[in-house]
Automatic annotation (TrEMBL):
Lineage: Eukaryota, Viridiplantae, Streptophyta, Embryophyta, Tracheophyta
UniProt-listed Enzyme Commission number(s): 3.4.16.-
Keyword hit for Secreted: yes
First-level EC class: hydrolase
Residues in the signal sequence: 1-25
Compartments where located: Secreted
Recorded GO MF terms: serine-type carboxypeptidase activity
Keyword Ribonucleoprotein applies: no
Protein name: Carboxypeptidase
Keywords: Carboxypeptidase, Glycoprotein, Hydrolase, Protease, Secreted, Signal
Broad class of where this protein is predominantly found: secreted
GO terms, biological process: proteolysis
Organism: Juglans regia (English walnut)
Pfam families: Peptidase_S10
Family to which the UniProt record says this protein belongs: Belongs to the peptidase S10 family.
Amino acid sequence: MESTVRRALNLLLLISLSFFHQIPASPPSFPDEALPTKSGYLPVSPATSSAIFYAFYEVQEPFSSLSQTPLVIWLQGGPGCSSMIGNFLELGPWRVNFLKALNDPLVLEPNLGSWNRKFGLLFLDNPIGTGFSIASKPEEIPRGQYTVAKHLFAAITSFLQLDPQFKFRPIYITGESYAGKYVPAIGYYILKKNAQLPVSEQVNLAGVAIGNGLTDPLTQVATHAVNAYFSGLIDEKQKGELEKAQLEAVRLTKSRNWTAATNARNGVLRLLQNMTGLATLYDFTRKVPYQTELVTQFLQNDEVKRALRANQSVFFEECSDVVGDALQEDVMKSVKYMVEFLVKKSKVLLYQGHFDLRDGVVSTEAWMKTMNWDGIEEFLMTERKVWKVSGALAGYVRNRGSLSHVVVLGAGHLVPTDQPLSSQAMIEDWVLERGLFGYQQREDSLSSM
Ligand SMILES: *[C@@H]1O[C@H](CO)[C@@H](O)[C@H](O)[C@H]1NC(C)=O
Ligand SMILES: *[C@@H]1O[C@H](CO)[C@@H](O)[C@H](O)[C@H]1NC(C)=O
Ligand SMILES: *[C@@H]1O[C@H](CO)[C@@H](O)[C@H](O)[C@H]1NC(C)=O
């Protein structure tokens, strides 16, 4: 998750929760059926003991042989937030009971919208130093996307060697928020690396998907004011003030003053937070922030750590400030050129929960339409279709060639938390090219032109 304001808010909430209510004394239990198929550590380089923590859940209802069943990899944002938030609050097969009453015990519940219904699902705590991952020295924590990708590549290739059935499975790399940087970075790295490797050593990348991502910050930071103004959340005078702050962030980004540019963007978000007084910019309809601290509380338990095969000496934090600081100069750097490369050689899905004021629909469309890709004009001329799941309105889909864009209604920044079934339908249809994502659909729209 992409945050600073949020971390502070959550901390406040956590403090007030533990102050006014006793946290149940009995440790949360980890049902056997909720255990990952495999979990543990993957090396990032032979030269260090730094390692990426992973949790893998095999497909629940395979539609083909395992060796052909797609593998979906999930990366959380931050920078520095754990993919276990994605696992236990968003798209994993078992989630914490985040709708529970305050004094109810914290337990895991099956998630009907899990992304491992049709695919294998792999969560990676990335980069090292995040979640249960281990940075043997702080200096080894990546300071830019090249090192992030190099470490992820090592971890993914060693994961694929754990089982001969894994080797040729199509791989989809997905993630949210600051993973709008990581996902293009590892996708790009894989394609470049594959070009130098014999087929037998290549990684079978089939596509990348980004939810509510930060990808082209220069364009995105300039969209908050109009978005909030036309949503009726700020007035014209406040819009002017916010635009002034945005222009400063743009100016600093253009002059490659990276630290100052990151600070200026944080200033823009603080200002928007202050003007709107919302519980969270991640979802303007929420009365309280996302309950990520429940996952943290769950994962700090020793029994839970043992069940997950996480290193007992690692103290779990939702987001690591050390990792956040290491990537401070990376925040405003664009990876749009990597998405442009991926859309030519692979397939790309960009989806956003509609209620997000940080990295939402307007923010994404702003950079998407500037993509240097010869399919972009056709894409923009393609009709945006009304999307239904089980007969009910779920959002909007625009799909043309290798690029797909989805607006998820009734969701904020954490789409699978808010709309588990829509998010599952989206990822399954996009991977399997069914429904609005199907080839048939593309042919239909061609013939009707
Ligand atoms: C970066 O921007 C800050 C804030 O405007 C300024 O104080 C600093 O001198 C700038 N640094 C460089 C190298 O231009
Ligand atoms: C916004 O900032 C001002 C000035 O610092 C402060 O007085 C006010 O309480 C803030 N409002 C909110 C909603 O945080
Ligand atoms: C657990 O992590 C610590 C560093 O945080 C490391 O020294 C130790 O060797 C690790 N233990 C295992 C079993 O990997």
